[in-house]
Amino acid sequence: MREKLLKAAIYHYSRYGYQGATMQKIATEVGIKPASIYFFYQNKEALFIAAFQKLLEEHFSQMKKIMDEVENSPIEEIFGSLLHGTVSFHKEKEEETAAYISLITSPPPEIKQFLKNHMEQFDNWLIQSLNTSLKHYYPSISDQQSINVTKQFLLLMDGIFWEMTMYDENALSEQLQHAFHLTTLILRGIEDAK
After folding, report:
1. What is d(CA 43, CA 20) in angstroms, rounded to the nearest whole number?
2. What residues have CB less than 8 Å from 17, skipping those under 6 apart?
3. Which residues contact 18 (CB under 8 A, 6 or more apart)?
4. Which of these, 142, 153, 154, lies nearest to 183 by C-alpha position?
5. Range with the lowest mean pLDDT among 135-139, 168-172, 190-194?
6. pTM of the model
7. Mean pLDDT of 38-43
8. How far is CA 97 from the centre of its chain?
9. Distances in Å between the alpha carbon of 139 and those of 79, 126, 142, 153, 194?
10. I need a labelling partner for 59 at 20 to 30 A (CA). Which of 78, 90, 103, 148 fits?
11. Integer distance in angstroms from the first to the last C-alpha of the chain?
């Protein structure tokens, strides 16, 4: 039942936002009375935090899985796999992605701090993971150079993420090619600085 409630909460958030995703609508979606939701979750805020935590953890787990699969690959492949993996994950989960975009663009005050903490955790993990890969591939890279490269890559990933819902498959594929090209230019900058 928890899984159904979380899925219904995400569905209704993606359609109606936090205020419009009422406990009544969510209960109707899963076929229970609204009061029954409180058996599982203390209040609406707790339900939505659990729903978004699940969504964000699934994305985080997917990125970790991709990183584990390519950690010993050439550096360009690592960065490319993360770009393509992000797009693939979110394309497969369009409803959840729509909810996530809505959450980021106008987070309810009740969930804002939770979201901020998660995003900082993800960014820190990515910086640390890519720093390890960059140092393996470019042993003489400084910590600051590595952080700068990773932050530039994060900007590219964020840009691709925001474009996913705006472009058709062909346009998105072209945007991915541009992002990967920019990534290779960033990495070449490390080599040129040697």
Report:
1. 15
2. 102, 106
3. 48, 108, 110, 111
4. 153
5. 190-194
6. 0.81
7. 93
8. 9
9. 17, 19, 9, 19, 10
10. 148
11. 57
